[in-house]
Design goal:
Layout lengths: L17 H7 L3 H15 L9 H4 L53 H11 L5 H30 L9 H8 L3 H11 L33 H30 L5 H12 L6 H4 L28 H28 L4 H30 L36 H11 L22 H7 L1
């Protein structure tokens, strides 16, 4: 409810005299009217005496465009209260200095070296990699932004799934596929590791056997398979013979090993061994100790003159070596062709080694890796002798086991680790005779 204006109480005074009438009468409205008329006379005449054409005019200017307030930028309104002015910074007052200003940290030696190299145009491999990644991300962002802009202009992009354009879209990186996944499932696709789709091994899932293992092979293929099987069995037999020969070597018992160790460790500690003739014998037939550096006689001693000459000779040899090295360095200028040839030979050698490493790496891709503690045992080759071959599939006898073949294939392709069957321990039961049974038997 609006508050009513307060009405002042009218003064009750006598106005029977002119002095009291002038004192207590309110003539402010008359004064304002007369002041307004005088103002109009000063500015061109009374408004009541002027025509409408002099008082009003027609606005022919174009209206200004009103800027829509999108709500993105909120302007700060004027400060209503005087107290809020205290919160604003005073431009006439400088900021207070810090009591303990932090000194600028001097860059280290490593940082200075890196800056010097960058000023010369030398950039590290790590920084080059980061620059390359940022450039790729920037280009990808620009492509995505341009695609979104085009899509907003022309509407939703459509293409033939079975046409040639579909393959191009899929090769771009799966951006359209991600957008379709997000639009249909309303969930963001999980980012997979870059090597998620890579297989652990390049070996095929199903290996094709040799042509000699067919139910109706040619003579050459069958003979080649028989020879390969013979070589494999011969190698196994050689390994078994070697193990058998090793087991035939007489082994020392623990007591014999201990006695041998004690005799070796205590050799030369007891004087009885020297008396028996087992000790070391000197050249003169006596057991006296021979000094490594025998005493020098007076005639063979080194004098100061001899020492000085030896020192001068060493310095001269050192100087000759330094001069020779200096000459070799100076002559290096005149053998630029040979130096270039040596550099080319080293480059060719390193390139050949690199190609050899690449070839070895490709070959190792088809070899099963050591994926477990146990060694992978290859399955024996399936072979049929000449008298076992039949001419039709109806008479063919199946060999091998499908599950065992798949299990070995998983181990070869490093999908599962190599395992061995381990016999479980038998539960040990305690045997006792029940009291009730004992009473019955008794």
């Amino acid at each position: 409810m609006a508050e009513l204006p307060k009405v002042s109480k009218r003064k009750r005074v006598a106005k029977n005299r002119k002095k009291a009438w002038r004192k207590y009468s309110n003539i402010q409205d008359v004064e304002d009217f007369l002041e307004e008329q005088r103002q109009q006379l000063r500015t061109g005449g009374l408004a009541s005496e002027k025509k409408d054409q002099d008082l009003f005019f027609e606005d022919k200017k174009a209206p200004k465009a009103v800027k829509k307030n999108t709500g993105l930028v909120k302007k700060r309104g004027p400060i209503q209260h005087k107290v809020d002015w205290r919160l604003l910074p005073n431009p006439r007052v400088p900021p207070a200095p810090k009591a303990f200003p932090r000194k600028a940290k001097r860059p280290g030696k490593r940082v200075l070296e890196v800056r010097a190299k960058e000023s010369q145009g030398l950039v590290s491999a790590n920084k080059r990699r980061r620059l390359k990644e940022s450039e790729e991300q920037r280009s990808l962002y620009q492509e995505t932004r341009q695609r979104e802009k085009t899509r907003q202009e022309i509407g939703r992009a459509t293409y033939d799934v079975w046409g040639d354009n579909a393959a191009k879209v899929i090769k771009k990186g799966g951006i359209e596929a991600d957008e379709h996944f997000l639009r249909v499932t309303k969930n963001k696709r999980t980012k997979l590791p870059p090597r998620y789709q890579d297989k652990p091994s390049k070996l095929p899932a199903v290996e094709i056997v040799a042509p000699g293992a067919s139910y109706n092979p040619s003579l050459e293929d069958h003979q080649a398979l028989i020879n390969a099987t013979y070589e494999e069995e011969l190698k196994k037999q050689k390994d078994e013979d070697r193990l058998e020969r090793w087991h035939k070597i007489p082994k020392l018992t623990a007591q014999q090993v201990q006695e041998t160790f004690i005799s070796e460790m205590s050799a030369g500690l007891f004087p009885e061994e020297a008396d028996c003739g087992t000790g070391p014998v000197t050249a003169g037939g006596e057991g006296d100790d021979v000094l490594p550096n025998p005493p020098t006689t007076y005639e063979n001693r080194k004098t100061k003159k001899r020492k000085r000459k030896e020192k001068e000779l060493k310095e001269k040899e050192k100087q000759v070596k330094a001069e020779k090295l200096q000459r070799i360095r100076q002559n290096e200028v005149y053998r630029l062709r040979s130096i270039k040839k040596e550099i080319a030979e080293e480059a060719a050698k390193s390139e050949a080694e690199r190609a050899k490493r690449e070839q070895r790496k490709k070959e190792m891709e088809n070899v099963p890796k050591a994926f477990g503690h146990h060694k992978l045992e290859e399955e024996p080759m399936v072979i049929k002798l000449s008298d076992e071959l039949v001419g039709s599939l109806r008479e063919l006898k199946p060999e091998g086991h499908l599950l065992r073949d798949r299990y070995k294939s998983f181990q070869k392709r490093n999908i599962i680790e190599t395992r061995t069957w381990k016999r479980g321990q038998k539960a040990q039961y305690k045997e006792y005779e029940k009291k009730s049974h004992k009473e019955i038997t008794a």
